[in-house]
Design brief:
Blueprint: H1 3-12, E1 16-20, H2 23-38, E2 42-45, H3 49-54, H4 56-61, E3 67-69, H5 77-87, E4 92-96, E5 99-101, E6 106-110, H6 114-120, E7 125-131, E8 135-136, H7 139-157, H8 164-168, E9 183-187, E10 196-201
Parallel strand pairs: 1-10, 2-3, 2-4, 4-7, 5-8, 7-10
Antiparallel strand pairs: 5-6, 6-9
Length: 204
Amino acid sequence: MNLEATLEALRKNGFDARSVKTEAEARELFFSEILPAIAPRTVSRGDSATLERSLIPEELASRADIEFIDPFAGGGWDETLETSRRGLLSDLFLAGCNAVTEKGQLVNLDMVGNRVAGITFGPRRVVLLAGASKIARDRESAMERIRSETAPWNARRNGDLRTPCQKTGVCSDCSSPDRICNAWSILEKCWPRGRITVILIENC
């Protein structure tokens, strides 16, 4: 894993790339620099354990100057989907990233597709948090890591789902109705330049 080379490659590919040591520093960077520069009226989010640990959504939900469109604030599945759809027209979309390659590519895999949709198109700006442990050598190794490690972990994190990997911890390319490995996205470049900010967290 080469953090500096990855940051350089991301910037060369048009991403606004930053690095911090901890999730707490990511939160500080977001609220002190990134959010004021974007000045969004509406903010939405995709599912992300890293984002949750940063406590960014929690603080956004308490602010009166921003409409925080949170699909995970409660309610049933239909309400979650409808809120996710509204979030695709927000000024700012927040999420995690499954893998970042040393060539400066972003690789993600979704169940529903709301997260990859928000990252690729719709919201005016995007901020992604990712641990430096998610840096992979290339696209192929990134996809393999997501299939073998990230997806089974995410399935176990969502206890209401029923997939083979929840029990085995290993991807079996299943046909479960609850399969979370449905929609891939690979961003080679960022267009327009600077639309997506990637914050790589060293100790994560």
